[in-house]
Amino acid sequence: MLVVVDRFSKMAISIPAYGTITALDLAQIFISHVFSKHGLPVSIVSDRGSLFVSSFWTQLCQHLKISRDLSTAFHPETDGQSERVNQILEQYLRMYVSYHQDDCHIWLSLSEFAYNNAENSSTKQSPFFTIYGRNPSFDSIHVSQGSPAGESSTELQSVQQVVE
């Protein structure tokens, strides 16, 4: 899982990552999930993982004029904001992901939504509100057991719990 956090709004973008990704994969993920929706960042704070210190990623950031701030070895608190978001998302996932962990990708986007819809302690408002000026609207999910969707009511109730 790759997590990107906006320093101003605290908005999180969580991206499932399967297997080993290359620096080129990271660039494509960055373009698809960050740049295309939010534009180029002025700077990126990251750990010293091999992807973030690779020649390709370094040259890409230089070309795009993105400042890179790498955390100090053995001091992950340099990127404490992302570390905290990772902990929160992992807590959400632990509650809902199946024993076999084959449905993590389903719950990741809902966990991201729940995080972005919760009040942040430093901004005193949700990241969603900071970005859009309003909280997201959603109706409670109510499905009766007799309806055709009744078989899915357990899953829908789980979704409702995450969203709330």
UniProtKB/TrEMBL annotation:
Region (Disordered): 142-164
Domain (Integrase catalytic) ranges: 1-135
An MF annotation (GO) of this entry: RNA binding
Keywords: RNA-binding
PROSITE patterns assigned to the protein according to its UniProt record, in alphabetical order: INTEGRASE
InterPro entries: Integrase_cat-core, Retrovirus_Pol_polyprotein, RNaseH-like_sf, RNaseH_sf
GO biological process, one term: DNA integration
GO cellular component terms listed in the entry, alphabetical order: nucleus
This protein's name: Integrase catalytic domain-containing protein
Keyword Glycoprotein found: no
Organism (species): Austropuccinia psidii MF-1
